[in-house]
């Protein structure tokens, strides 16, 4: 059983359509897959149709942005009902925040002497749910950087001149949305946040108090070396464990779908009792 519970499609900042993503996952031997696009479940239904056709189990999911101490924190919602009205209303609010933020970043690019309006138009034309990733691609396509990563390092990362701090809802609000839609909340890639170990523990305390259920123990390309530390945190806070590639594109060849992600034996998997 190969399980990958964190992936992106072209409904957010991935490059494959939900159908292509499911087919590629099936070819890679993935048996349980979740589509977890940023702040949207728009791709879940077509992923589900494609999954049924190739005998793969598709877990409906989403990756929701939250703010904690002015930092972006990502919370995965797994096994939720993508049709739940309150969830869709909440995600509509997230989309508005994303549009406002990208426009503010483009305004900053204009002040830096770049054609912000053109860049914004390119993002809006290419993205139903805009992310910094789309803006980075626009900067690359229009020749303002020569590598995608440079767009982040030069302009879009926190502390860089076109960055805008997002006004996402607090963690407890986001966990509440997920639980109200019947899902389990998973704190994504816990080692990717710039937090002291004390702050990380405070974050986990708040996440658990809000009803968070699991910690992503293995995540993408930087999973393995952090697994033991994350497993210890999960045990300490009584959280289940999750695994996911955070796949975005076949072009990022170092981060394929369903890399062999094995959860430490001491951890209760988030899929325990949830698989058919
Ligand atoms: P946002 O949610 O709008 O802040 O966009 C964040 C997304 O940008 C992440 O989910 C990543 O997919 C992408 N991203 C962030 N940093 C980088 C980077 N250095 N190279 C490529 N993609 C990145
Ligand atoms: Mn992304
Ligand atoms: Mn993330
Ligand atoms: Mn992700």
Walk me through what this model shows:
- The protein is of the alpha/beta class and about 280 residues long.
- The chain has a seven-stranded mixed sheet.
- Helix 4 (about 115-125) crosses helix 5 (about 130-140).
- It has helices at about 20-25, 45-55, 85-110, 115-125, 130-140, 150-155, 170-180, 195-210, 225-235, and strands spanning about 5, 30-35, 55-70, 70-80, 185, 215-220, 240-245.
- The protein has nine helices and seven strands.
- The protein is globular.
- The protein binds adenosine monophosphate and manganese (II) ion (MN) (3 copies).
- The site of one manganese (II) ion has 4 residues, from loops.
Helix content: 40-55%
Distance between the termini: 12 Å
User: Any idea what the radius of gyration is?
Assistant: 18 Å
List low-pLDDT spans: none
**Beta-strand percentage?**
5-15%
Shape category: globular
Attribute tags:
276 residues, alpha/beta, 15% strand, binds adenosine monophosphate, binds manganese (II) ion
Nutshell version of this structure?
By secondary structure, the chain is of the alpha/beta class. It has helices spanning 18-27, 44-54, 85-111, 116-126, 132-141, 148-156, 171-180, 197-209, 227-237; strands at 3-4, 32-35, 57-68, 71-78, 184-187, 214-219, 240-244. It is built from nine helices and seven strands; from the N terminus they run βαβαββαααααβαβαβ.
Write the layout of secondary structure elements.
Blueprint: E1 3-4, H1 18-27, E2 32-35, H2 44-54, E3 57-68, E4 71-78, H3 85-111, H4 116-126, H5 132-141, H6 148-156, H7 171-180, E5 184-187, H8 197-209, E6 214-219, H9 227-237, E7 240-244
Parallel strand pairs: 1-2, 2-3, 5-6, 6-7
Antiparallel strand pairs: 3-4, 4-5
One manganese (II) ion (MN) binds next to loops.
